[in-house]
Amino acid sequence: MPVKVPDSLPASAILRGENIFVMSEERAESQHIRPLKVLILNLMPNKIETETQLLRLLGNTPLQVDVELLRIHSRPSRHTPCDHMNAFYRDFEQVKHTNFDGLIITGAPLGDLEFEQVQYWDEIRGIIDWSQQHATSVLFLCWAAHAAFYHLYGLKRYLREEKISGVFRHQRVHQHVPLLRGFDDEFWVPHSRLAQISLDQLKAHDELTVLAESDQAGAYLVVDSNNRNLFVTGHPEYTRTTLQTEYRRDLAAGLAPQIPHNYFPNDDPTQTPHARWHAHGALLVSNWLNYYVYQQTPFDLNDMDAMTPWE
Questions:
Q1: In which residues is substrate bound (predicted)?
Q2: Residues with catalytic function
Q3: Bridging pattern class, strands 65-70 and 89-90
Q4: 156 assigned ligand-binding residue
């Protein structure tokens, strides 16, 4: 949450110079409080597992968040009961005339397909376009980040020679950025994907800024020039056992997967995996909700033009 201090206090100017969010007395007195409305487009097969992971992160904040769940189509899911989908998920037609403070689009197990080969690619493109006018901020995770890079900026990914799977060390590229407040200089993040976008390509784009990266996994956090779209190529929402479950699933399917890097003690899959990303995962989502959603969104969601200018 922001720090409220008198405008004339010397510390106020110092903190603003370090990009620490300080709220003026005038702005604090004029603020009205209401719950944030966050829409989650869940593209993962096991909807219940993914929604639980994301809700755990969204719940780790003092802000009140009202969540709605969105599905990309109404066809029966092979991995989630129809009763669950019908009870808790909405179709796009039901929300397309509504504005939201935040939108999260999850990853999807589609890493080896060209985007145009994805059965619901037109729907994905439509929702991404819609989000630019109907959500204060959009958080794209893993596959969704690559899809948005491609659709919004024409950036093409490439398939890696082998799947990247494991927990990797990352570094902050920028020091004083709201999204990274409280982050250590180095931190760990899970990755699990077949595709990658060139780090050099992202850094060369005029409308994008790489905020954090990894020597092994490439760009991790990228933000657009308007601070509206946040692209996260890893999985801060993963639980301790998610990579273990994926590894065992791929083994059972005869895919001969590599043991996830930096995950099992002594690279021994029979041992309980290490979890060293939960704190930074929670901090990432908390910072996004506070600085990129709560502090920017209009009190009246019907007036998206009233978004607070970025400071």
A1: 163, 192, 249
A2: 142, 235, 237
A3: parallel
A4: no
> Is 163 a known ligand-binding residue?
yes
What residue spans of 218-271 are helical by DSSP H? 242-252
- 9-48 b/e with 16+ CB inside 10 Å = b? eeebeeeeeeeeebbeeeeeeeeeeeebbbbbbbbbeebe
pLDDT digits (tens, 9 = 90+) for 129-187: 999 999 999 999 999 999 999 999 999 999 998 899 999 999 999 888 999 999 999 99
Domain boundaries, the chain: 1-28, 32-306
Is this structure's pTM higher than 0.85?
yes
CATH class of 32-306: alpha beta
Question: Using CB atoms within 10 A of its CB, is residue 89 exposed (0-12), middle (13-18) or buried (19+)?
Answer: buried
Task: Report the SS3 class of residue 110.
Answer: coil
